[in-house]
Design brief:
The chain is α/β, with parallel strands linked by helices. Helices cover about 45% and strands about 15% of the residues. Helix 4 links the parallel strand 4 and strand 5. Helix 8 runs parallel beside helix 10. Bound molecules: cytidine-5'-monophosphate.
């Protein structure tokens, strides 16, 4: 599939979120509701955002015992999420239960469930402190393969990891990539950033972009520019 654009609606101001969803939703493939917006406004906001855009990514990064995650994942499907995620760190039983629960809640298979591997905010020092003697890159690959074995549809991964994941997990595995910065946008607090063109070349399927679009003077024009760069 051609790479798609997902705009992150990161904020707590309901008015801003809904206005942005209304203005941008018809021009992009996806809008993402994350922890900040969800903890402020809950399921109703997800339902409302879903009326303005083809697909909603509910980015709650579920991580708990298998039964709890499975039930929460089914609730995400029922409230209109087309894509949701869990932490691979929850392990095989949790991921298998979550995938089975999503398939049961949406037998059509159109709702996708993906894994977050190693958070990009964790460097080797942080992993060592947590007791892991692995480099984050090798853990990312290992956890991506495990997610695939558990029946998940893909992973969240930086564009730098995307090429290796694509090689190991094959052409149908969904790779969703944040940390995108067009050459004309500020880096903000993102460290390992790549341009939209490079993310598409690396094999990412869905590019998640927040501030370069939402804080632009003309968010619609910024989204159009990024979509054009993704095609080029
Ligand atoms: O504004 P910006 O483009 O940096 O937003 C990126 C979005 O992707 C945010 O919603 C952020 O939480 C999310 N994200 C990320 N890095 C990850 C996982 C998710 O930036 N490793």
């Amino acid at each position: 599939m051609a790479a798609q654009l997902c705009v992150a609606l990161d904020g707590s101001d309901r008015n801003w979120i809904v206005t942005t969803a209304r203005n941008l939703g018809p021009h992009v493939n996806w809008l993402k509701v994350g922890l900040e917006a969800f903890t402020a406004h809950g399921p109703d906001l997800v339902r409302e955002v879903s009326t303005h855009v083809p697909s909603v990514f509910l980015d709650l990064k579920l991580h708990d015992i298998p039964t709890t995650v499975a039930r929460a994942a089914a609730n995400c499907v029922r409230l209109g999420a087309n894509l949701l995620n869990v932490h691979a760190g929850g392990g095989r039983a949790m991921m298998e239960a979550a995938a089975a629960s999503v398939r049961a809640a949406d037998p059509s298979g159109s709702t996708k469930i993906i894994a977050v591997t190693i958070l990009t905010s964790l460097d080797t020092t942080a992993l060592t402190e947590l007791g892991s003697d692995h480099q984050s890159e090798s853990l990312v690959l290992r956890w991506a393969e495990l997610a695939q074995q558990c029946g998940l549809d893909g992973v969240v991964a930086s564009a730098r990891e995307a090429e290796r994941i694509r090689r190991v997990c094959g052409p149908d595995f969904l790779i969703v990539t944040p940390g995108i910065r067009p050459s004309w946008a500020a880096g903000n607090d993102q460290r390992r950033i790549v341009t939209p063109e490079d993310a598409v070349s690396a094999g990412s399927n869905i590019l998640v972009v927040g501030r370069p679009i939402t804080t632009a003077d003309d968010p619609q024009a910024a989204a159009a520019k990024i979509l054009a760069e993704m095609k080029s």
